[in-house]
Amino acid sequence: MISLYTNLRWMRAGFIEQVLAESAVRSLILSPARRARTLAVLLAKAASVHSA
Amino acid sequence: MLDDNLDRSLQRDADMALLREVANHDHSAVARLFAEYESTVSRYVCHTVPDIIEADLEDVVQETFIGVLRSAKDYRGDSSLSTWILRIAHYKAIDALRRRKVVEKREETIENMSGDEMTFIGATSADVEEGMVSAQDIQLVRKALSRLPEDQKQAIVLRYVVGQRVDDVAETMKVSRRKAELLITRGRAGLREQLAVLDVRQE
User: ipTM more than 0.90?
Assistant: First the structure.
């Protein structure tokens, strides 16, 4: 026999919002190398459109 | 309130000026825009496309800013620059979702067990007092988020992940303030319902 319980933390006022805010802080963002590469692509794009 | 309106007005002027330079393909303006908004776009995309990997995130961020570059001349300052960029990011994220055809695996503990092996007792107060947010909490919330209707998910991400005010959520989603409030309220309730199912503890 296995007994299951729902964790009441999620019912506490403000807890979901707190986890979402923390999720934003710990979110995947681009590494410096990928950020630099993406910016290089954008600048190249800007240059090509500008010269066209 | 007056100060708030003045701040917003000044911000819009600065946004317009920046976008004019971007529209003229001024490299330093493009670099400033990217530096200022890349992390916001990344966070928004990460919470819109479940389990996205960094390579795919890079693609979506790149597509978003190319979209910004192409549309910069059309920016009229009717909404904040952040709102305008997130609208473009939203469409690119939805495109990515469609391309990948992300199949959400339902990993609910309950579904993995046969009914006669378990008894649902109810709720536990374990951890209720604990204010710490664990990595597991974040995983659970992201999974619950991915199961919400698209409009509720978008409203919740804009409000609590990006940190927009309700007025800005309404502006980004092009809905009334009342509707934005409703989507946020329903989204929160939906998250609670999902989490009650996802976060079951076994005895």
Answer: no
